[in-house]
Amino acid sequence: MKNFTEKKFLADGMLGKLTRFMRILGFDTLYLKDANDDELLLTAQKDNRILITRDQELYKRAIKMGIISILITEVDIEKQLSQMMVKLNINLDLDILETRCPICNTKLEQISKNKIKELIPEKVFKAHEDFWICPKCNKIYWMGSHWKSINRTLSNAKQKAINLFNSSRN
Fold this sequence. Notes:
Blueprint (H helix, E strand, L loop, with lengths): L7 E4 L4 H9 L4 E3 L5 H11 L1 E5 L2 H9 L4 E3 L5 H12 L20 E3 L10 H6 L3 E3 L6 E3 L2 H25 L1
Parallel strand pairs: 1-2, 1-3, 3-4
Antiparallel strand pairs: 5-6, 6-7
Helix pairs in contact: 4-6
């Protein structure tokens, strides 16, 4: 299967959590929460984005229009990620150098902790050395306890993808 790491995605309004994870994994993922189906299809076509949706009718329309589309059938984020891994052969390994802002989709940049000392809690400043900032929305990130949760979710999703792949071969 093709490697989609350089591809751009478009997620519909039902996939906000999946969108955040795709961005954290480094995938350029546009999220149009309030767009109607016609707007989603037009944007996917115009920007050459892979449409990710839970809407079966939207999925069918996209396919008829020649838009690459993925129908997500699961509600659970781990299962959604495993579907993405199996259907598109995408990597679920976190690479902070590729991570995008989960809020605005801009690629994060590493920043010296001394430049942001006044912007973060003192406890965080003392406990961590590495920080990243979104140059667009100025949100600051570090590998705190939330990273453990993200990695656990990704690890569980990988295991579910392996199980899904193996069960589809039988």
